[in-house]
Amino acid sequence: MAVVDIQFTAHDCGGCPIKHRAVCARCDDDELSLLEEIKYYRSFEAGQTVLWSGDPMDFVGSVVTGVATLSQTMEDGRTQMVGLLLPSDFVGRPGRGEAAYDVTAVTDLTMCCFRRKPFEKLMERTPHIAQRLLQMTLDELDAAREWMLILGRKTAREKIASLIFILGRRDASLGLGTTTVGQMTFDLPLTREAMADYLGLTLETVSRQISALKKEGVIDLQGKRRVHVPDHERLLAETGDDADGGMVA
Amino acid sequence: MAVVDIQFTAHDCGGCPIKHRAVCARCDDDELSLLEEIKYYRSFEAGQTVLWSGDPMDFVGSVVTGVATLSQTMEDGRTQMVGLLLPSDFVGRPGRGEAAYDVTAVTDLTMCCFRRKPFEKLMERTPHIAQRLLQMTLDELDAAREWMLILGRKTAREKIASLIFILGRRDASLGLGTTTVGQMTFDLPLTREAMADYLGLTLETVSRQISALKKEGVIDLQGKRRVHVPDHERLLAETGDDADGGMVA
DNA sequence: GCGATGCCTTGACGTAGATCAACCTTGGGC
DNA sequence: GCCCAAGGTTGATCTACGTCAAGGCATCGC
Question: What Å value separates CA B179 and C1' C13?
């Protein structure tokens, strides 16, 4: 089956319960079968730590289902999330033998892993893999830079609005949640504490700001996790970003 | 002359005043001569804006001499620096036709540029370019994540110490400045305001914290720009990071 | 030499968000 | 149905940093 580009995304197409597609129209079959050969799946429960920073890491891979985070912790316990991994996001770095960040499953998680050494070899011989990874890494870098603006210059309220906006945007682009013109409903995959670690705030401040946005009708909550945004524009206005194109990708 | 890997670094080797090496032992001469063909230099004075966010961008390139910054500005004028470009750093994104950030020369600046379209074509045919760019982008992503910890969780004092540490480390790795065991001396390439934009602080806070570190003997200043760090370990202790390997690459 | 200009420093004061602490909600196990 | 634990909310207070304002100190053109 010929596919135009290499995909690191989840597909359910029989065989193994969740099939991970890694095929490329321009690479020959040997490459593909090798990729299949070094592939395996790992599952984690919500709350489990996948890897501690400094652990040896003999695989790279990507998230198939669930949500994971990358975070850094200082000696005194202050922690900052530095990556939020949703389905199709890549984990690990070719050429790096140990984890640079703590990787944690925040929901039940399935990952598709490739043994690192053979993957690196394959990457040398199959240019499209490196090209695809380059695009993905550049996207992550853009996201990191948007995140830096949030961390460095936004108020607590703007931070919360931005986070909700970003999570909604990602869910929408993955076809999750409900989206109608100007509205959306979806689940927050993070606890208040995880949101605080994302935004460089305390969990109390997160809670207060969410309450405030709720009281003012910017968002609506069903339970603690499910969010309804009645007016997309209104939320965007609260993020501090300008309407068009202010936020990347 | 055969070189093992593609380099995006500055070399003065005759021909053009500052020669930009883009050679690869494993690629044939045609590729190389094409890379030479689409190459040109641009110079900017300190303070000049290279590109505004949203400007069309028909080149990619790298810094040859000087320092430039990437930054994002909100409607009300708050700005956050999201990239600090020193010699050999890459600018631009293959496949992106407009600048996503403001690019500013903070010192006199020379850049080596390649016309974007032909560069992209060349990249498709010359795998080592994508592989090299991938490594560089991954390094930038690591730096961005270190930066996120600084922005989100560190105190003003720790931020300043971290910045001085990072700048010293980079200067040392480029062979600039003076380094003896446990000591170093180098020039801050940034104004107080630029440091504030880097760290998500105000320039007054930057100034106060620098004064405090000076008063306490952690650093020493000759003029406003030249820094002497008498005890590397002492400075590192002030950054809040743990001694070994806490900070990436 | 002498303003003028662009950084930088320092001080006084205000405030957003952290901290400390109590309490509430929800869901699971029995 | 009841208890318990984990996560979430809300209030009172504290403080690090921002804001506003007044100089200081080099460098430049004249």
Answer: 43
